[in-house]
Amino acid sequence: MTNQKMVIPDAKSGIPMAFPIAMPDSALFPLNGNLFPVKKLLKKLAPNANGARINALLDSMRASSPTRRPSDAEDHGSWNLHHPSALTMFDEITAAANGKQIVVFLDYDGTLSPIVEDPDRAFITTEMREAVRDVAKLFPSAIISGRCRAKVYDFVKLSELYYAGSHGMDIKGPSKRHISQRKGNQTVLCQPARAFLPIIDEVYRALIEQVKHIPGAKVENNRFCLSVHYRCVEEKKWVELADQVKLVIKDYSQLRLNHGRKVFEIRPTIKWDKGNAVEFLLESLGYSESSDVLPIYIGDDRTDEDAFRVLRERGQGLGILVSKAPKETNASYTLQEPTEVMHFLRSLVEWKKLSLLRH
pLDDT tens, 166-186? Predict the structure, then answer.
């Protein structure tokens, strides 16, 4: 019995994904009306499979870098027509919010803080913290990050917010609930992946040992998921790092591997992501069945697409992608960098204050 891999392009991203298929060496497979042994078939179909695998992996890892533009991106001008600036279209956004309760969801890295080489130094500025605090005073607000919830709280240090760490697998409510929030004064707590904690700790220790020889590689324990950062790893070492990560997790069927911005993310296999976190928080706030709510989600990463997709499928809410380069997205609007996010948040606050004065 051998484990072969079938490479299929992902329908949305176009990134080749390898799926292991166990089959006996003597198995036969039909090709052009004839039967070929599996090994012979694989050799016939992919004589340069290893080179193709490496190239596909490198392309995927390069695509996760914020400094590169995807090769299949639309023309910048055309892309901007379909995904205009949230600042330029601010009046359109507030018109959609008229008479509705805005709920604000924010990613952290690349959205509230700049992307930096050392993830432990992704500090939020004083000005950004003030903008987020002002938003949280007027609207129910949450930060949904792939980071450990406690670490994001240490960066932000605002008790008015919901914090959803580990891609929403660890959610805790603010100590003082917003006046417009509808469900009593209890703290909301959601940890759907708690049973996976022993496995995650075990894999974390194994990853530390496995990649310690690769300069620049950093393993981060986000409690309910793990991140292996390669922002500081030389590109010639990327494939080796990817192989080492896969080697560690190959025997853990309870975990899956995802890509973020220059990071490998290892998560439990449960169906839970930032989109589920958005749905959970809206339900906790009492807005799951309401037509008088406008969720706004701002994020920059592939993992934020899960939340953008949920809002699009609901037909209710706005996704705002933070990106300078065109990329495929379910978001409706864009902002180029954290500074623009701060300006947008300040604009929301000023708009709300003026609305309150009028009434």
Answer: 999 999 998 654 444 444 444
